Amino acid sequence: MARPAGPGTVRLNPPAWLTAGLRPAPAPIPRAAVLRASVALSTPLAVGLAAGQPAYGALVSMGALSGVIGDTADAYRMRILNIAVPQLFGAVGVTLGTLVFGQGWLTVGVLTLVALVSGMISSIGAVASVSGLLLLLNAVVGAGLPMPDPWWKAPLLLTLGGLFVLLLTLLGWPLRRAAPERAAVAATYRAVAELYEATGTAAYDEKRHAVTASLNQSYDLVLARRARQHGRAPSLVRLLAQLNVVIPLVEAAPAAQLRAQLYGPLPPSVAAAVRELADAVEEGRTGDPVLELPTPERPAEKAVDHALRYAAAVVHKPEPDPYNVDDRLGRPAALRVRARRTSRAVLLSEASWRYGLRLALCVGLAQALVSLIAVPRSYWVALTVTFVMKPDFGSVFSRAVLRALGTAAGLLLAALVLAEVPRGWWDVPVMCVLAALIPAFSAKGYAFQTAAITPVILLLSDTLNQQGFDLVMPRLYDSLIGCGIALIAGYLLWPESWHTRVGDRLADAVADTAAYVARAFAGDPADQSGRLRARRKLYRDLSTVRSEFQRALTEPPPTGPRAAAWWPLVVAVERIVDATTAARIRVDHGAPAPDPAEVGAVERELRELGDGLRGADTLVEVRTELPGDENGVLAPLRQEVRAARAIAGPDLR
């Protein structure tokens, strides 16, 4: 038995925010991606060796590596965007880097400007983020490694590598086509089934978060495809209609949760019926639905029963959209309109400029160290800064630490390869193994991804500059220098990085929640679609707030502990939204409507809470009274609002 620590014993356990990224995520290994990466990176090397041009093969493999890293989508059309568009930006980047190779201050200035553009466009979305990353990465590589003449050869070879990954990715498209979108919609139905099974239990909140994430993913996949599809393709109309009718089921879940807390769990036939709908969606089955459901008695039970029968009617009908529910939540704006909005948002956004300037400062310092100071430094310094400073990869501080640790682990493996494996045809089977580790380790976390990518880049770099084992230690030093630049110039010099006012983001969500409460009981039946869109937006925004807080938890003090202190309030706001939805559903199915004065009092308390949270650093408990009918539909909502006010109030400064 372990001896307990005495009162004077000091535990030397590392803090949780430091070790969070070192625990591998419980994600399955993507077998198809593993095979694809292995083939995509090793085949160009083999072709280059066979043709007597190993450097050309290494450049094609570098382009393939970029494609493998960017292949993160599920739907085939999204994968085309995720791979092809970033390759174009990568080609521009390596061209700019090649043209200023060895030009001193000109190199520093060009890469600094590229970093500014890269950082600003990274805020647009996932595809733009990867495009900005490749633009800067390839510019850094082109400015740091000698490329073959003429100037157009390097971008052509890198692009060929990315297109090779795209070709391998699309091999299954003729057979599967809309299968990823259909599987995503079916997965949303199954997540809803698990949510109903969890009603009345402690697992309900976790399952609700899973439903929100699944809905977000499904809408992103289906609507992204609809936005590029001219006309009304029946398969897409059908998928969107099937996805839209799951919304009433999701809305009825909070009422079912309240009912389960009072009267016990729902009958198992409810979750079974939702799972049957999931199977029908995935298999494309139609026909007359058979629903064996108990007779509903209470308003919550009526809401669930009505939503299930409505969903079953839409899922099983052979017509793509029998009840015209395809557009009830709205369609994305035209591409021209969205492009104009995005450009305006990027150019006028303070956050976009701030991140672009931070990245430009760090890359400029790194490249100045490489280009202007007479020490044996390499492009790896700026490369490290680029990876560490990516805004959507997590905390800058934790990424710098994880990058250093991951690089050290990857260099150990690279040292074994460079020391023991002779250059030449042995590189091909070695690359087969190393490339397969990238998607397998990427699913586990940032440090693991870094450990997998490092030996691959070193092996390809050695094929270009023939330095062998001498590459290893300088790259470790360069990585540590790059991490140091990112920590100092990209983190410590920007107070918002380590004095993040986490309350500002949450205050916006609370204000939107107050508006949702007012809209939910406004009494306008014609505004049902508007309420649905408002609720979907609110849940998506709360999901983003939750992600922001989870990211803040990995920051060192004071940000991490402050985010942990605020976390219960995030949960409380989510429960307020659930209670509002449950009350609205109960009213829709027979419960008496609440007094408008009661609704106004709840809205007023929420707006006061939101105003108090703005700009606050600490939480102060506030007792509040919300009188009303204790047997009315708003009683659970008032209870949740009182719980939130007991965590925080307006007098916080």
Task: Describe the protein in words.
It is a single chain. The relative contact order is 0.10. By secondary structure, this protein is mainly α. Helix 9 (179-197) runs antiparallel to helix 10 (204-227) and helix 23 packs antiparallel against helix 26 (596-613). Mean pLDDT is 78; it is low at 1-10, 227-231 and 326-330. The protein has helices at residues 16-19, 31-50, 54-70, 76-99, 105-121, 126-144, 153-169, 173-176, 179-197, 204-227, 234-244, 247-263, 268-283, 299-316, 335-348, 350-372, 380-388, 396-420, 427-442, 446-465, 472-492, 495-498, 502-520, 528-552, 559-588, 596-613, 635-647. The protein is built from 27 helices and no strands.
Concise structural overview:
The protein has 27 helices and no strands. By secondary structure, it is an all-alpha fold. The chain starts with 15 loop residues before the first helix and ends in a 6-residue tail after the last helix.
